[in-house]
Amino acid sequence: MSAYTIHVTGIADATTEQHLTDFFTFCGKITSVEYDQAKHSATIHFEKPSAAKTALMLNGGTLDGAHLTITSDQEHQDKEDGTAQAHDHIEQEVKPRAGIAAEYLAKGYTLSDQILQRAIELDKQRGISNRFLSYIQNLDTTLGAKALGPEKTISGKVQETLVNAAQQAKAVDEQKGISKTATDQYYTRALSSPWGQKVKAFYTTTSKQVLDIHEEARRIAEAHKASQPGGSSAPTATSTGVGSAAPPISPDVHTVAGTPAPSADPTAPVGKTTEAAPTVL
Question: What tens-digit pLDDT sequence spans the chain (281 residues)?
Fold first, then answer.
C-alpha cells in the first residue's frame, strides 16, 4: 500500500467511489481508494508524492455539492523525474499545478479562485519540472522542424502561415504515428495554434494570474469539443471558476487531520457530478 496518502472528509451522500476516483485522477496515478460511505470519508493512495501534494491543493473544493476537507498525516515532497522527449507520455504528476487546475475547470468541475491562486503559488515554489519543460520544448522544436525547417519552433511561427505549418506537421505525425495520446494531441494543437506562444508561456513559466488559468481551461474545453464527432471549434464561454471558498494556503495543511471544511456558501454553484472517468490531458 502506498505511503503517499490523503484523507478526505465531508463527502456528499451522492458521491460514489468512482466519483472520487474520477476527481482525484487529475492529480496523478491512484493505487487504491478506501471509501467509508457511511462516515463520508475516504483515504486515497497515490503512486507518487507529487500527486498527493496536488490533491492537498484541492482542500476546500467541492464535489457533488459538498465541501471536501483534504488532509494528510505527512508532508509530501515533489521529486524530479528527469527529462522527457516529445514522443514520451507525460504524466499528471509532472505537470504544472496551474495546468492541472485548468484541466479540472475544462472538465466542468468547480474550483474557487483561491484554489487557483494556490496552484499558482505551488508552481512558484516548485518551479516547472525539468521533465515537463523538456517535453514541451522538444515537442515545440520537433513540430517546428517538421513543418518549418531546422531550428524552428512551431509556437514562434508568424500567424499568417501557421495554419499551413500545423497541417503539414499533422500530416507527418499521422504518417509516423506521433501525437496519438490525448496529451500529445492537445499540446500539439495548442502549440500549433495562433496562440501557441501564449500556451507555451503558460506551461513553461510560473508568472501567471488566475485569469490565465481560466483562459487555458477554455482552450482545453474548446479543443476537446472540436475533437469530438460533429464538434465545433467555436469559442465557448470562459469558466467563471466560482464555487467553494477554499481555505488560505497554509504550510501545515498536510499535518492538520480533521480540520473542518469551510462552511458552504448557499449562493455558490455546486460541484459537478461526473459519472464517467475524466479524459485527463
Answer: 678 999 999 999 999 999 999 999 999 999 999 999 999 999 999 999 999 999 999 999 999 999 999 999 988 988 766 554 545 578 899 999 999 999 999 999 999 999 999 999 999 998 998 889 988 888 877 765 554 555 555 455 544 444 454 455 444 444 444 334 455 578 888 887 888 889 999 999 999 999 999 999 999 999 888 877 765 544 433 333 333 334 444 444 443 344 444 444 444 444 444 444 444 55
Residues 115 and 141: beta-carbon distance below 8 Å? no
Strands 41-46 and 69-71: unpaired
- Residue 144 CB-half CA count within 13 A: 18
This prediction's pTM: 0.71
